[in-house]
Amino acid sequence: MAPPLRVGTEVQRLGVVVAVAALVIVVINVGRLSYSAFVTLPAEDELRVGLLALEDSQDAVMGTDSLLRGYLATRDPYFVAQAATRAPEIAAAEGAMLANLDRPKVFPLVLDLVATQREWQSGWVGEIQSVDPGRVDEFVARGDVLMRDYREASTATRAALIELIEAQDAASRLIQRSAIVVTALVAGTALVVALRARRRLLAHVVAPVDGLLAAVRGIGEGRLTPPERVDGSAELVALRDGIAEMTVALRRQHEETAAQAERLQVRTDRLRTILIMTREIAGSLNTRYVIDATVQAAVAVTDGRVLLWLVLDDGTALELAHDSDRGTVSPMEQDCPLAVGVVGRSARYAQISRGDPAAGEDPAVAVPMVVGARVIGVVECWDSPDGEVDGQRLSSVEMLATLAGSAIEASRLHAATERLSEFDPLTQLANRRRLGVDLERAVTDAKRWSTPMSVIILDLDHFKELNDRYGHQQGDVVLQEVAAVLRAGVHDGATPYRWGGEEFAVLVPRGGADEAAALAERLRVRVEEDFRRGDKQLLTASFGVAGLPEHAGDGEALLSEADRALYSAKNAGRNRVHRAG
Asked: Under which EC number(s) is this enzyme classified (predicted)?
């Protein structure tokens, strides 16, 4: 007769098979990944970096060649200056090629490419400014020959590099496919062994386990009776005895659970209150709403009067923000200095503080609202008729204070961020982002009502020289003074904006180009007069004006036309107003 089956032995045998199969699969895949990570991928990365460097070098060389030919055609030094900016790109790309393309199959081609490139630089680029005007055609022909040699070397190098990359990709794919095949064979063998073990377990274990499961289901339904004896492996017999012991323990726990249910229900109600408050304030960025919701939740938890105090911006005192008995109170209706009284102590030392009625203090507990390492407010809870706020109720208030502090701080930061996103912090003028929103609205209204509107863009003349002479701090003062001139000089709904740097814009929603040009002239005179010191003129401004529908049909085109008019004014001598068109 065959020995009785032991579940542990069968499971151990199955575990060994699975573990060995898993180990083999892991070793194969770790080896494959390691080879890819430390051999294949670095090599491919170097080749691709080298290919990118080759393309960057070719782009820089071709750009430099085009610029220098422009110079030969026009003799404009601008082209030489622009070509000089490409030299670092060529050098960087050359260094990257030499550093990454040191493979035997491509390195000789890279050296040949670098040599032709340097021959082009020394034999053509370096002599560009010394070319006799009468020999330009000869010089261009020589450049054509050198550039042809460079292109041939570049094409040959790129072809060899791509061929090497494709070869490495093919080798990598072969390794990947081999690893997949071996993994599949190992997994298939393990699966066959596992299926055989499954059949044995089903035949010798499942039937006794069904009886135990029926007993467990009865226990789950409340019938706390021990299961009947089972015939099976030693493990199943031990399991039956364990279930019987568990049944006895469950009977005892049932009695204890009934006693704890009432206490848990009270705590659950408090946590539900906190959860509801958390959901309500999580999606709100309204500070007043967060304060009201926090006080209502604290009242529900403590069954007493609740006051919420907020620390003032200067940090010297707290102001009462909400009283559960009176509702929202006016700002600064009542305040409390730091370190004075139960609320002041809690705010000053960032800890829970309890009032001392014997010392004339209110019978209340103050819980600080701490965000990071900073106290932003205090929740003051008065003792209810049921007793002091302590234990679980105090823990719930602490949780409320933590959540409310973060929500209040988030709402404050949101309000501050919204303002910063639309206003320039230096001049306090609306910024370019706000101009885009206002301009779109003004264009829509102008088209709807068939009324004209205009845009003015102004630039401070020689502002960089003023910055260099007097310093950037004084330059910031000048920008603030110009902003003040614009605020004082606009009217009839016109709005000034900080366009960027030393440029400003004025949106004229009700007025055509004529009215805008007149306004721009008044502003120009104001700037000229305000920045004149005796016979010395410190600063002037140039203005560009464009109107809709006279010069453009949408906001973006309107700004573009005004900017073009501005540069026309600067090119015409500065300190003047030019209209578009």
From this structure: 2.7.7.65
